[in-house]
Design a protein that fits this description.
Elements lengths: L2 E11 L2 E10 L4 E5 L9 H12 L7 H12 L4 H22 L15 E7 L6 H15 L3 E4 L11 H18 L4 E5 L7 H11 L7 E2 L7 H10 L4 E3 L6 H9 L5 E2 L9 H13 L3 E2 L7 H12 L7 E3 L32 E3 L13 H4 L23
Parallel strand pairs: 4-5, 4-11, 5-6, 6-7, 7-8, 8-9, 9-10
Antiparallel strand pairs: 1-2, 2-3, 4-12
Helix pairs in contact: 1-3, 2-3, 4-5, 5-6, 6-7, 8-9
């Protein structure tokens, strides 16, 4: 079998663009993958075309060889866009390999250690407790969600006194705890805090409410600082969405900087690298809760990773076509994640495996992809009272 073509498509999921990749073969088998949405997304198709020249004619089942070749060819670490492109190619290679033998991808990974994959719903905001109670109850009734991820900020961390930030968070989290006793909440501080002492104080303020985890309160660049942070926290510390390789994760694990790691299968180079990262974490008794704010194809890839990963904990999930709390910025039906005809949808808070479906177990709508669905997206930076900007 040989790789004979690469096609890239600009799709949309909610209010964000998504770049999908199809790898074609001389045996008529096509594999699909999804790039991470770092921005600028228009830069990905020409990058993918360039990478294709390095893998044309290769046997797509030799995944380790092909990914290694792409990394070696770049010589320098590929960076965010390079790894996003390599990730999608990796996904497509696994999809082809599994379809060639008529099996789900997880059966090529040693088989499944679980029959279904637990998910939490990403809400990415901090709405009023009573409103949130009603939203969680609705999501539980329809999809069985029992875990949700929120922002911990109820005040402006740049303009308000720090004491007010802590006080409003504690009052709100306490109300949530009372109103939603059977729900688990994770809190994503989104790397917005610069000073480690603030990260410690905010995390420990949440400790009485037993959060599922406390995610990425500060920037990832100084990995050793994470070891000191975790040592001072009384809550499970999660991080890793901004790390790119097993080498960076090894440093994080060696300095005991996380209880839970959150690699992204569309960021780190794909399934192959994701598995190596998870194996490292297992040796440190650290679980894996993959970062997954992406589209329904990325979710399908994550389902297969989670099915075969012994130290998997829980998967981040968004309903296709939505972006945030109460379906804010919901795309029109004709524009919402239409590239996957049969996305994985939760039942009882879990995504069921599809043992009778080869590859990723989903069908791609190529007619939908004939139209360019690009939507411009960029991060909006907060502005501090002195006019400087902060991380978002």
């Amino acid at each position: 079998m040989k790789i004979t073509g690469l096609r890239s498509f600009m799709a949309r999921d909610g209010n964000r663009p998504r770049v999908l990749v199809a790898l074609d073969t001389n045996e008529g088998i096509t594999g699909w993958g999804e790039c991470y949405n770092h921005g600028p997304d228009r830069a990905l198709p020409p990058l993918l075309d360039y990478l294709y020249l390095q893998i044309e004619g290769e046997d797509p089942r030799r995944i380790e060889r092909i990914v290694l070749k792409l990394l070696q060819q770049s010589r320098f670490p590929p960076g965010a866009l390079g790894l996003a492109a390599i990730s999608a190619i990796d996904h497509a290679l696994w999809d082809i390999s599994a379809k060639a033998v008529g099996l789900p991808v997880y059966m090529l990974l040693g088989g499944h250690v679980r029959d279904r994959v637990r998910v939490y719903l990403g809400l990415y905001s901090a709405p009023d407790a009573a409103q949130l109670r009603d939203h969680c109850a609705s999501a539980n009734a329809e999809y069985g969600f029992s875990a949700f991820k929120l922002s911990p900020y109820r005040a402006d961390i740049h303009a308000d006194p720090w004491g007010k930030v802590i006080k409003t968070t504690v009052e709100w989290a306490g109300a949530l705890n009372d109103l939603c006793p059977d729900v688990e909440f994770a809190f994503d501080a989104h790397a917005r805090l610069f000073e480690p002492w603030q990260a410690v104080e905010l995390g420990n303020a949440l400790a009485p409410f037993n959060p599922l985890f406390y995610e990425e309160p500060m920037r990832p660049e100084n990995i050793e600082a994470w070891g000191r942070l975790k040592a001072d926290l009384k809550v499970p510390l999660a991080t890793g969405e901004s790390l790119y390789s097993r080498f960076e994760f090894l440093r994080l694990l060696q300095c005991a900087g996380a209880d839970i790691i959150q690699p992204d299968i569309c960021v780190v180079g794909g399934m192959l690298e994701m598995r190596k990262i998870a194996a490292l974490a297992e040796a440190f008794f650290v679980s894996v809760a993959p970062h997954n704010p992406m589209g329904p194809l990325a979710t399908a890839v994550n389902v297969h990773f989670a099915a075969a990963c012994p130290n998997f904990k829980i998967l981040e999930y968004r309903l296709p076509g939505t972006t945030a709390y109460l379906a804010k910025d919901l795309a029109p039906p004709e524009q919402s994640a239409g590239y996957v005809l049969d996305p994985y949808i939760p039942m009882d808070g879990y995504l069921d495996l599809r043992p009778d479906r080869p590859g990723w177990g989903v069908e791609i709508d190529e007619d939908y992809l004939k139209t360019d669905h690009y939507i411009h997206w960029e991060r909006k930076l907060p502005r501090r009272p002195d006019g400087s900007t902060g991380y978002t």
